[in-house]
Design a protein that fits this description.
Strand content: under 5%
Helix content: 40-55%
Order of helices and strands: H
Number of helices: 1
Shape: elongated
Length: about 110
């Protein structure tokens, strides 16, 4: 029984058990892989919980909006701008950007 606690692969948790051994290299690698896998799985679970919370808040907002204002869930207000897009360019149908159409029957000035 005394030979068992001095095997190189054993970790003695109490100093009174004798010589404290360290992990072998393969055990260290396995521990790192296990902890990494555990962090990934728990991180995904936490991410799912956060996304569920945000999605449920949006759904509650839409239900309240329907009950209070009478607006359907799929109705979204979109502000229409006449001046152009957000970058200050003119709209596509404005006169300054439209090309001049040539019909071939242009009037010539008479002299």
């Amino acid at each position: 029984m005394n030979d068992y606690r001095f095997q190189p692969e054993q970790i003695n948790l109490k100093p009174t058990d004798g010589l404290v051994k360290v992990l072998r290299t393969d055990q260290k690698i396995a521990t790192v892989l296990f902890v990494a896998w555990l962090v990934i799985v728990l991180g995904m679970a936490a991410g799912y919980a956060v996304s569920f919370l945000i999605s449920s808040q949006a759904l509650v907002y839409f239900i309240l909006r329907k009950k209070v204002d009478g607006i359907e869930m799929n109705e979204v207000y979109e502000e229409e701008t006449e001046e152009g897009d957000a970058f200050g360019s003119e709209p596509a149908g404005s006169a300054s950007t439209a090309p001049a159409a040539s019909t071939g029957a242009e009037s010539k000035p008479t002299a």
